[in-house]
Structure formats: structure tokens, C-alpha cells
Design a protein that fits this description.
Blueprint: H1 24-38, H2 45-52, H3 56-60, H4 66-78, H5 89-106, H6 122-138, H7 143-173, H8 177-191, H9 196-204, H10 211-232
Helix pairs in contact: 1-4, 5-6, 5-7, 6-7, 7-10
């Protein structure tokens, strides 16, 4: 049996505009709004059509199916990851990391799609091209360019996606950060009783410890350490 050929909304010719009816941009914006409000499970062509006050025909003029719609909304997420042209590699990597982190915070549903939906849209490819160009101009060569890019992307998403999951759980619990902390702390202290390193760290946290601030600082610490490490590859 032959493999199913790869298909993407970005590989087929876009139909010409219609004098009346919805535009593709309108559909994508409405889909993002729906996803932000209700999450990935809530997205359907029927529900989106109802939100737009349009029938399925208007939607299918622009997208063949829900998978194509998902590709479009994911590239809309990448639209805010704008890297300056001709930036040096540290600036480009930092801008990418913070912008990508914020994009996932703004659209939590995207966390489960990154790495699953190919990033072949113009916004995703432009960000990748500029980040790659910055590493090449800095002196990274050959496969090291790919490794450097992968390190930045992997760190950014690896640090951000669990935090987004935690924030989503916090929201679902209906508790404030301090309320959740107060409920969890005694349990953690008890379970760490025979693990001295962990116990000492938990005890050292001040009463006004803010996990949200701590996570932001931790992201900055890790990113700086990563970029310092990549810098040594150029010397």
C-alpha cells in the first residue's frame, strides 16, 4: 500500500477572492477567538460557521477541512514572533524565545499542536529564516546552525509548555496562586521529609514567594545560560 501523499493548506493553490462573503482572514481570526475562549475541543466547522453567521459553503471555499483550518490558525499564532532583520544572533534568539513564550501564553491551546502541526506558513517560516540567518552571520557553520536553532526552540517550548499547563490547571481549580500554594505546601513538605535536599529548598522559600515571578526569572536564567553556552561554540 502506498503512503498517503503529504498535503497542506500551504501547498495547494489558493482560490481567488469572492466579491461577497467571508474572507480567509476573517475566518482565521474568528477561529482564533473561538479557540482562545473555549479551547481546542470546542473548534468545529459547524460552530465556527455559526459564530460567523455563515454556512459551511463559505468556510469550505477557503479551507478544505478542519486540519487546514488548524494550519492557518497556528500560523496566526506565529504572527507575533517577529524577529528583526539583520539582528545579531543573541538578540534574534532572545526575541524569538520571549515572543514564542508569550504567543503560547496568549493562546494556550496551541501548546498541544506545536510539533504536531507542521509550521509551513509564512509567519513560521519567516521567523525560522531570520533566526537561521542570525546564527549563520554569527559564524555557526553546517549542522551546528541546526543544532543552535533546535537548542533555542527546544528550551523555549520545554520551559513554556509545562508552565502553560500549570496555569491552565490553576484556572480550572478556581483557586488563586496563594490558595493553591497553601494547599500544596504541607503535602510537599510531608512527602519530602526523607529527601533532605528538596526539604531544605522548600523550607528556604520565603512566605511571600511568588511562583509566577519565580517562573519568569527561571526562564530568563535558563535562556541566558543557554545563550552563554552557544557563545562558547564560536570561540
Amino acid at each position: 500500500m502506498s503512503a498517503k501523499p503529504f498535503s497542506s493548506v500551504w501547498t495547494r493553490e489558493r482560490k481567488g477572492g469572492r466579491e461577497q462573503g467571508l474572507s480567509r482572514d476573517q475566518i482565521v481570526r474568528a477561529a482564533v477567538e473561538l479557540l482562545d475562549a473555549e479551547g481546542l475541543d470546542a473548534l468545529s466547522m459547524r460552530k465556527l460557521g455559526a459564530r460567523l453567521g455563515a454556512g459551511a459553503t463559505s468556510l469550505y471555499w477557503h479551507v478544505a477541512n478542519k486540519d487546514e483550518l488548524i494550519e492557518l490558525v497556528m500560523d496566526e499564532v506565529y504572527a507575533t514572533v517577529v524577529l528583526p532583520e539583520e539582528a545579531d544572533w543573541r538578540e534574534a534568539a532572545s526575541v524569538f524565545a520571549y515572543a514564542m513564550r508569550q504567543a503560547v501564553f496568549d493562546h494556550p491551546w496551541s501548546a498541544s499542536l506545536i510539533g504536531v502541526v507542521p509550521g509551513l506558513g509564512p509567519n513560521a517560516l519567516t521567523a525560522a529564516d531570520r533566526l537561521m540567518g542570525a546564527f549563520v552571520r554569527a559564524g555557526f557553520e553546517g549542522i551546528d546552525v541546526d543544532y543552535a536553532m533546535t537548542a533555542v526552540v527546544s528550551y523555549t517550548l520545554g520551559a513554556t509548555i509545562p508552565e502553560v499547563a500549570w496555569l491552565s490547571s490553576l484556572k480550572a481549580s478556581g483557586k488563586s496562586v496563594s490558595e493553591l500554594q497553601a494547599a500544596v505546601d504541607p503535602v510537599v513538605m510531608k512527602l519530602s521529609a526523607d529527601r533532605p535536599n528538596l526539604l531544605e529548598r522548600y523550607r528556604s522559600y520565603a512566605k511571600d514567594y511568588d511562583p509566577l515571578v519565580a517562573r519568569r526569572l527561571a526562564f530568563e536564567f535558563g535562556l541566558t545560560a543557554l545563550l552563554d553556552g552557544l557563545g562558547t561554540r564560536l570561540h
